[in-house]
Structure formats: C-alpha cells, structure tokens
Amino acid sequence: MAEVDIAPNFGAELKDGFKPVHSWVSNGIAWLDEMQQFYRERSAIEKEYSAKLSALAKKYFEKKAKKSSSLSVGDTPRVTPGSLESASMTTWSVQLNTLESRAAEHDRFSAQLLSNLAEPLKTLGARYEELRKHHAEYAAKLEKERDSSYAELKKTKGRYDSVCQEVENRRKKIDSSFDHGKTKAQNAYQQQQSDMRNVKNTYLININVTNKQKERYYHEYVPDLLDSLQDLSETRVSQLNSIWLQAAQIETSTLARSTDYLNHLSSEIPRNKPVLDSM
Q1: Which of 105, 112, 137, 166 lies 20 to 30 Å (CA to CA) from residue 129?
Q2: Where do the F-BAR domain residues begin and end (predicted)?
Q3: pLDDT single digits (tens) 153-205
C-alpha cells in the first residue's frame, strides 16, 4: 500500500459536519464487533477441526492396536519375535502422534483466538463506544446551549418589537390627546422611550453574546469535537492493526510448530527400511 501524502484535519476541513462524522466513526466502532465475531467463528472452526483430528488419531490408534501383531509378525508366528511391532508400525505411530500434536496445536490456536483476539476486541469496542457516547452527549449539550441562546435572543427581540410598538402607540396618543391630557401623554411617552432604550440595550447585548457563542460553536467547539472524533477513529484503527498483527503472529507460530512436527515426521519415514519388516 502506498504511503499517504496527506494529513486531513476534520475540524478545519469539515467545520460543522458533526453528524456525518459521528455516524462514520460510529460505524467504525460497530465494525469491531464484526471483527470479534470473525475470530470467535474462526475459533469454533479450529476447535472443531482439532476435535476431528484427535478423533481420527484415536480411531486409527485403536485399529493399529488390533492389527499391529498380525501386520508385524503374522497371525501365527513360529518363533518368538524380539518385538511385536515392525518398523512400519513404529513409523505409522509417529504419523499418528504427529496428527495428535497438530490437533493440540489447533486446539491451542482456537483458545488464543478467543483470549488474545476476540475478547480484547470486545473490550476495545466497549471502550470506544463509551467514548463515542461522551462525544455525542457533549455535542448535544453544545447544540442545546446554542439553541437556547437563539431562543433567548428571539424572546428579547420580541420584547423589543413590542416595546417599540408601544412607543409608537404612546406617540399617537400625544397627537390625538387634548391640551389638558398632552402633558400626561408626553410623560408616558418619555417613560416608554426610556423602557425601549433599556430593552434595546438588552437586545444588543444578547445579539453580541449570541454571535460570539455562534462563532465559538462553529469555529472552536465543534471543530475541537471533530478533531477528537478523528483522533478516536485513528486510534481505533491503530489498535485494530495491533490485534491483526498479533493474529498473524499467533497463526505463524502455530504453523511453525506444526511444520516442526512434520519435519520430524519426514526425517523418520526414510528410517523405515523395507528389509526391517522382513526381519
């Protein structure tokens, strides 16, 4: 695989794309469960194969025990032999012993698939799922705070619009009032204008606060969250690579030991000289 000449940065490049990134990261974490199921199924296959090899070896050890004497010295030997087992029978025993050893290797490999791969993957998946939930909860908290700020600004604007309308109503009352009522109407108008300015100031402050929060939400909070999700995903891949490497090493060791058994068997077979059975 070629070296990747890029270094993506989710926070800088994806901005407010929390939902798609979160979904993508969630899929990767869920995939860990598929990995552990793979090794569990592989373990079951190896366990079954080991049992079948052991059963086969046992079956033919029993057959050998019944026929060893007749195959070695005949059904009615005339002379007491030095051994009731010929060289061919001894060599056949080596082959059956090799089969038993290989069955034991598959059984050991089956156990290692569970303890060294499937179980760690299960633990890893649970840990990353917990971290994913924390990210989702924090994102929801940030979104709630943002929406709450928007809602508060909307309410403040509503109060400002309402007080502005009331100022206009007071102004119209001045225009329509008689001389004896103008002073009272003007006082009410001035009081309403004062209230309007207070509400306006509150509204302007809320606008500034909301804009600042919006800026931090889209340019600081969410990008930091995306960077954290990216780190979570890349760490998961790194951990998965470590497990895959261990899987390869375990199987390589299993095959190496099996090869040693077969090499030993291969060295024993030439020792079975045909003349030895005749002797």
Answers
A1: 112
A2: 8-277
A3: 888 888 878 878 877 776 666 666 555 556 666 766 677 677 778 888 888 88
